[in-house]
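REQUEST
  id: r-88c1
  op: predict_structure
  target: Peptidase
  payload:
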Amino acid sequence: MFIITLGSALIYHFATEALQVADKPAGSVYYTEVADSRYYSYGKYHQNPVQVKPAIEQQFRGIVKQVYDYSCGSAALTTLLNGYIGEKLNEQQTMNGLMRYGEYDRIVERRSFSLLDMKRFVTALGYNSGGFKGQFSDLAKLDKPAIVPIAYAGFKHFVVFKAYRNGRVFVADPALGNLSFSAEHFQEIWDNNTLFIIEPPVGRELPGLLALQESDMRIVEDSVIDRFAFVDVRYPTLMMEKNADRAATMRRVLDDDPNSDNYQKPIDTYMRLYYKRK
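RESPONSE
  id: r-88c1
  status: 200
  body:
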């Protein structure tokens, strides 16, 4: 008994004191796989830790999410100032600046911000900026992010243009996150072909938060979305009817359908029971 107790104490000391176990990084998940997936086996391959992040974190990477329904302009401007210029503003600070330097009465009246309001606030911050109107070919060759207005799903909206790659326009949407449109679709919703650009100070190191990443290129084609998101679901009613018939009680009655070939002749039918809650 003494030997067993001593052995247990030594094992406990070895496991807790002799081994140095590093802290597990935040968000790490450790998993194992059986040696041969065709058979259940106690021999497993031990894998390296995998960093797991919530999907919404990637979806809004580098984006300041709008707090209010009408604040897409201030959120888009904050996203551009922080992600491209290197400011560290929150949406409320940007909204206060837009209200202070913009056309206050018109902002209150229309419950939204304009590109002119943005220019006045950006100028107060000490940056050069400007609104421009151009063709899609100009936007496709643009090598910097810009705020673009779109008319999408029946409402006006501001998003940040990130880049044009392989026939798709990638944007940072303060309401929906990082997404992309086909070139044809974007040209349909691009409102008045206008854009707003901010020039960073010469020599400043830019954060690059709005640069395209590999995860941005994992797109779903519009045709696939249309096929599966708007598909008319059809249930196999014939199979459901057959299953209901199997569970029903059969009885023999006279056919009372005057349009039937078996009118007034005995036929076999299925009597189903239906239940409803009180």
